[in-house]
């Protein structure tokens, strides 16, 4: 059976806890929609956004919005100011969240390996190929992982949230370690898993320890790092036969904004997350 909560709920709790527990976490992909309240459409009537940009609605009571090109320069300036306040960037994190099944009977295909209740999530070929390509492209400058809860009930999830135990109650695996497998199985957090169909024992990783390791890395200019990251992701997607068309369709309306480099980078990474479901974070 599926665990008794939605993947987005787990993802939200996880991100909030990571933000609180690590001083080197920043979600650049959420700047446009979170801080600015920016709509993905090129034409927006979002009053919060327009007020930030200086429009006073008592002068424009029937304001119908404006084309993105008209405000791109100002958006680029606002986002650039935010990015320039970041001292430096150490590395990128790409996280694919998974909502597992909780197997409670001997009918489970992998039961013979555990002989007890266990968690299982599927590894999808196209998704896995993309994560492996990102891992190869970034090398030691990125951590590309799957994150899945070792929690079966909503009540337990909420208790973990209240006690800041979401991270400790999660299973983390590097994407490259799950190559050529169809499923990953585990019984609890903090221990090894068994990836199948040909069983392979894979040791757990500590995301907090990995973040500490990144904290010792060489500093990189935040603006240039984000711009280079988006260019690398664009290259990966250009060579991906599964995601390429959808990505290009989403990006079509933004191609005319390339001169606004930091804005364009965030729009690109927003589209990347939208079509792949992969969360992009950076350690700073």
Task: Describe the structure in your own words.
The chain is α+β, with helices and mostly antiparallel strands and 284 residues long. Helices cover 42% and strands 17% of the residues. The chain has 11 helices and 11 strands. It has helices at 7-21, 31-35, 47-52, 68-84, 111-114, 125-138, 154-162, 207-214, 222-238, 244-251, 261-276; strands spanning 43-44, 66-67, 91-97, 101-103, 118-122, 142-149, 170-174, 183-186, 193-196, 200-202, 279-283. Helix 10 (244-251) crosses helix 11 (261-276). The longest helix is centred in the first third of the chain and has 17 residues, at 68-84. It is globular and about 60 Å long. 33% of the residues are buried. Mean pLDDT is 85; it is low at 35-43.
Q: How many helices does DSSP assign?
A: 11
**Could you say which structural class the secondary elements and strand pairing correspond to?**
alpha+beta
Helix/strand order = HHEHEHEEHEHEHEEEEHHHHE
Q: Spans of 5+ residues with little confidence (pLDDT < 50)?
A: 35-43
The overall strand count is: 11
Give a short account of the largest sheet.
5 strands, antiparallel
Major sheet strand order: 4-5-8-9-10
What is the helical fraction, as a range of percent?
A: 40-55%
Gross geometry: globular
């Amino acid at each position: 059976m599926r665990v008794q909560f939605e993947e987005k709920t787990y993802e939200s709790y996880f991100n909030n806890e990571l933000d609180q527990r690590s001083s080197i976490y920043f979600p650049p992909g959420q700047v446009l929609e979170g801080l600015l309240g920016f709509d993905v459409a090129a034409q927006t009537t979002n009053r919060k956004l327009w007020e930030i940009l200086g429009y006073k609605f008592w002068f424009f009571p029937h304001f119908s919005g404006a084309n993105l090109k008209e405000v791109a320069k100002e958006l680029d300036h606002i986002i650039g100011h935010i990015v320039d306040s970041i001292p430096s960037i150490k590395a990128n994190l790409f996280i694919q969240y998974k909502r597992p099944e909780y197997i409670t009977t001997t009918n489970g295909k992998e039961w013979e390996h555990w002989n007890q209740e266990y968690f299982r999530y599927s590894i999808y070929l196209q998704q896995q190929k993309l994560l492996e390509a990102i891992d190869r492209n970034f090398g030691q400058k990125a951590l590309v992982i799957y994150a899945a809860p070792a929690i079966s009930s909503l009540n337990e999830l909420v208790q973990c949230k209240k006690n800041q135990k979401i991270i400790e109650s999660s299973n983390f695996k590097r994407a490259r370690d799950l190559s050529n497998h169809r499923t990953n199985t585990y019984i609890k957090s903090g221990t090894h898993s068994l990836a199948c169909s040909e069983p392979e024992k894979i040791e757990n990783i500590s995301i907090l320890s990995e973040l500490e390791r990144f904290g010792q890395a060489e500093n990189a200019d935040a603006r240039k790092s984000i711009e280079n990251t988006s260019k690398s992701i664009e290259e990966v997607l250009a060579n991906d036969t599964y995601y390429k068309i959808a990505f290009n369709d989403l990006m079509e309306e933004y191609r005319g904004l390339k001169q606004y480099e930091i804005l364009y980078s965030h729009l690109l990474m927003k589209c990347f997350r939208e079509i792949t479901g992969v969360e992009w974070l950076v350690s700073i």
